[in-house]
Amino acid sequence: MRYRPSLLEHTHQSIRPSPVLTSARTGKSPKEPARIVSNGTLTHLSLLVVLVHLLGQSLGDEQLGTPTDRVSDDDDEEGETDDGTDEHLDEHTHRIVSRGLKLAGAGGTAGVTLSLNNGRHEPRNVTIYETEVPGVGHKFELEVDGNERLVVIIHHDGKRDVYRRPDPDADSEQLFSLTGKQARQLGSILEGAYFQPVELDEVEVPLGEAIIEWTEVGADAPVVGQSITDCDIRNRTGVSVMAIQRGDETIPNPGPDATIESGDVLVTLGSREEQSVLSELIGD
Amino acid sequence: MAASLVEVGIALAAIALAGLAANRVGLSVIPAYIVAGILVGPEWPTEVGGVSLQLVAYGEFVAVAAELGIVFLLFFLGLEFSVGQLLDDRKRITKAGTVDFLLNFGAGVALGILFGRTPLETLLIAGVVYISSSAVVTKSIIDRGWVANPEAEPILGTLVFEDIVIAVYLAIVAALLTGSGGLAGAATDVARAFAFLGLVAAVAWYGTEYVERAFNLPNDELFLLHVLGATTLVAGAALATGVSEAVAAFFVGTAFSQTPHTERIEDVVAPVRDLFAAVFFFAIGLTTDVTVLAGVAALLAVAVVLTTGTKLVSGTIGGRVYGLTPTRSLRTGIGLVPRAEFSLVIAALAAGAGGELADVVPAFTVGYVLAMSVLGTVMIQHADRITDSFAPLVADLTGE
Fold first, then answer.
1. What is this model's ipTM?
2. Is the Cβ of A153 closer than 8 Å to some Cβ of chain B?
């Protein structure tokens, strides 16, 4: 898993951004669009990510400067990071984002171009139009497929309204409306980054007094080289060995003949006292 | 003290109930606040079934709070005034805005001449019928979902254009109304007004960095107090030198609009604006003598019909300037029909001037705003019927 820079390449200018300007931001020739690594399957994800950015955009900037801005990409085929473009681009992106926000604050219609290099094929430009709605907040229009547009209105109080306009002649239908917090949660779900940490105190395993422990076998432990039967772990400590982890390998339900080696991790079930006896026996 | 506290309590409760009622029926709150003021105020109706309805007098508190309402309405107009939007889209905004101004301000001038009003009254009536209500229009197009459609562009663009016109207009009219009279005197007053406003505008333009740093405050409470203090002080100083406090507040707002503080102001200061603006609309109701409306009934009736039509036409042309379809162009016109808060600001200016002017123009404006804010909202709600009937006509006329 490697972190890539944001898929977003923002340029702010009036109404229609041109590819020349897009590339000017990253110092590349117009022929070679901003290097934004993506494979084919990622393109749709990218659209979602754009939506996420729209939903999550807060003028407090802090949302945009965080690592959530980045998109992880498991595809390591494209080794385009060797020239350090990544960092460069990242800096650029963030600077442009904050500049864009400032621009928006000062008022104005701005277009944002997103260049998505679709699996090294022709780049595809997704244009986002940003307009200030006086007294309300900001409006973003995102071209989806063909003529379809998603319209996001971000109110000053943080509320987000999301509309869909199927084609230029149709009326926008409101899809949903979210508070700022809900929008950020939805955004992280769309982005694939939603993670709810589990409170450890609340984990309940119905084992009564028993707990499961992972204990490493020390190099000098007396049990090294012996089988489970030989060292009589059950009688000496009271714990049952559920598994032995050896390097990358795990031996589940080890038989009585299984030998214990230095560096093994024993996964054992037993009471807290029994576990500490085991730890004294096999630990360093 | 107890009596005045009760009075203010009645005023705020009446405003709250009126707002609730308006919300229930899906209308703008502004006419509701005015009606609440008329009901509990000193003028007709004075009693119902033997119970006195003269509950709230136009006291000093209401007067000052209403004044603050004007100041903060204009402050926010300046704050939300988007120089960037104007410059980016200046060609289309200028075209649509000019058509809007010529047709609607022109209609106001025609009304004044037709009904034999004095030049100053005519100027005021023209301003009242010209300026659309940012508050009502914005709320309505959000409720209707038009804000996400292309017609939002000409609607908001036209409002931006009107903002500049109204700033200049208020500066001139305020100078004329408070002025010493005579052509030379009027010219001096207008010149002084622009000198003062030029100063504020220069500070707004060049002092952005300073404003940004000075208002970089650690908590919302201090921030609120600083913004209120600065704005009210500048507005008060303007009024003391005979310049429109509203326009001064507008420029203070623009000074903030270039800083990153805008969002915080929208968060922290907007509720204060809402409170004082509500009291302002209520106070308009308090001072309105409905019986005077009878005297301007004919003018009012003609004005409502004529200026609904001119807004529809100018808005539709504006929509076509933006290259929209006939239906969307018509919606642009319908969307701009509501007139409310800025018309009332002009009326308040007239009311402060004294003389016959102070009777006729405010009474006309209250009647006009009550009609246009309700009519405009209802037209936006039922826009489909209008666009269905007129879209083919627009298509024919514009050759599509």
1. 0.78
2. yes
